[in-house]
Amino acid sequence: MIQPAKEDRLVDAFGRVHTDLRISVTDRCNLRCTYCMPLEVVFRPRDELLSYEEITGAVRVAARFGIRTLRLTGGEPLVRSDIDELVRQLAVVPGIDDIALTTNGLLLAEQAEPLRRAGLHRLNVSLDSLRDQMFEAIARRRGLDRVLNGLSAAKAAGFRRIRINAVSIRGLTEDEIVPLALFCRREGFHLRFIEFMPLDAEAGWSDRQVLSGADVRDILTRNIGPLVAASRRDAGQPAIDYDWVDGEGRVGFIDPVTNPFCDRCDRLRLTADGQFRNCLFSSVEWDARGVLRSGDEPDEIDARLAEMLRECVAAKKQAHGIGSSTFARPQRAMYEIGG
Prior knowledge:
30% helix; globular
């Protein structure tokens, strides 16, 4: 693999080298999860979203500066038509080594095989409960059976690195923790618990609702068995992983509130409407869509995108600041930024 010259890497003022790009392909979703979306929502007009060709063009530029891994998100990315075609385009971009996708799983049964054939490497599936009633309480839609069918289809299609993402909310999800862990141990999925963040569209978040990763680990060890810290495979990964001592799988904890991973963050974001962001909680965006649709010559567009990426990375703050007196919620909710 050809590495970019040192001076061409995307390095911020704190020495963090950026190699990961999260790409939201749509703000639309077929669920209305309380920690992400309002019950009633007006989505962006279709012509405001980047085309697959525009996304691929932005990725080609980013790859020249060391972006190696991509994650497709939403909203729900599988509601975007022919998403496997985007995967196919991205899979042949020079320098891109890994493409992952985060989905709620409702449409996965129909699309797992086409996505695998197109070149998708990894899947993350959001699943907060294995009980219909609780699933509907959180998602505000039915569909647990479809998610489970989607997971089965993904395994049949040949996906071997499937992660389950579960959001932890105090007073709501405690009883879901052990059943999810037992399910993932049995099925061979890598379970990750994510602390509730202040990105809900209805602005109801409170630090009193944060069920910490430490508390979840305590529940798991008391009810299932001991965990031991696992070696870190990727220095920039947000999760701290643990292995079950009995050898039956792995569980991870993403603790952006109680144990932020800002010091090792290596990711940038591209929203569905074409804005670069250097942090999930950023208050500033850089308008890649305006450049891509400027009508300039391709070389000029690439040069402007390259300069925009440098500016975006250079402006990245040391930390998101949740819990500090200077923290301000982003104006956009999770579904508008990209999970």
